[in-house]
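User: Reviewer 2 asked us to show a designed sequence for the structure in our supplementary figure. I'm pasting the structure tokens here. Could you produce the per-position amino acids so we can include them in the response letter?
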């Protein structure tokens, strides 16, 4: 059995091509939403958050022979644990990594740690758009300038509730499904009079290029939360090349 760590658009794109060559696949996602991304594909699915111990059991129970990691670029612990599990179980590990976008905005700042980013944000004047995903919402709840912070999240009830549970007013919640074009970003920035945009370097799949172009046009500063770096074995930025190596 081949295990695909999924939950992203990357995993859907990969599976749509890979199922032509392989039919013994199980896909794990951390959420039910991740499972919905691969609806109608002929693969087994498992929806649960797994630590390393759970991954070891998962490999044993499903007689896994290969791990293909298509998790989010910022899912550091997931990838780290999967690499260690593959080494301990002596099975092959493959990684699909989004190609980095080779442009930077005119105005930007980088932060390695979320706590340092939060500290910087609290002292800003002007409206701020956060596009880090709903998991990071609780970190902002006690900021003195919270009324000036807007959160763009997926249009799911549980994510909206997470915002509401952390002192975010409905007027500050933008619940929409991407991807967002440059023009959509411009319209949103203008609508909410945004001066700062907080994001991750999520590549073209995550709409990074469109955010940069919109912010440059409107003189908005981008605040990046940097990705923790991992040295991957068998890492590919092209799905077709990855599949070619998998089916050798």
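Assistant: Here is a per-position design you can include in the supplement:
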């Amino acid at each position: 059995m081949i295990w695909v760590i999924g939950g992203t658009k990357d995993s859907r794109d990969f599976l749509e091509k890979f199922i032509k060559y392989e039919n013994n696949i199980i896909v794990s996602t951390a959420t039910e939403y991740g499972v919905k991304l691969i609806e109608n594909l002929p693969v087994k699915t498992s929806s649960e958050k797994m630590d390393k111990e759970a991954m070891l059991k998962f490999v044993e129970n499903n007689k896994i022979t290969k791990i293909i990691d298509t998790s989010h670029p910022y899912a550091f612990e997931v990838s780290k644990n999967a690499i260690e599990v593959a080494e301990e179980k002596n099975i092959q590990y493959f990684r699909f990594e989004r190609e980095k976008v080779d442009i930077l905005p005119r105005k930007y700042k980088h932060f390695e740690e979320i706590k340092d980013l939060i500290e910087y944000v609290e002292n800003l004047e002007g409206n701020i758009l956060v596009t880090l995903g709903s998991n990071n919402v609780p970190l902002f709840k006690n900021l003195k300038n919270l009324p000036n912070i807007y959160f763009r999240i997926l249009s799911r009830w549980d994510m909206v509730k997470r915002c509401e549970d952390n002192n975010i007013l409905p007027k500050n919640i933008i619940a929409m499904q991407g991807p967002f074009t440059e023009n959509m970003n411009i319209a949103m920035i203008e609508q909410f009079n945004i001066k700062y945009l907080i994001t991750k370097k999520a590549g073209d799949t995550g709409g990074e290029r469109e955010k940069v172009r919109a912010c440059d046009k409107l003189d908005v500063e981008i605040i990046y939360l940097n990705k923790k770096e991992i040295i991957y074995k068998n890492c590919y930025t092209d799905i077709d090349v990855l599949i070619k190596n998998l089916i050798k």
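For the response letter, you might also mention the following. The longest strand covers residues 194-200. The mean pLDDT is 92.
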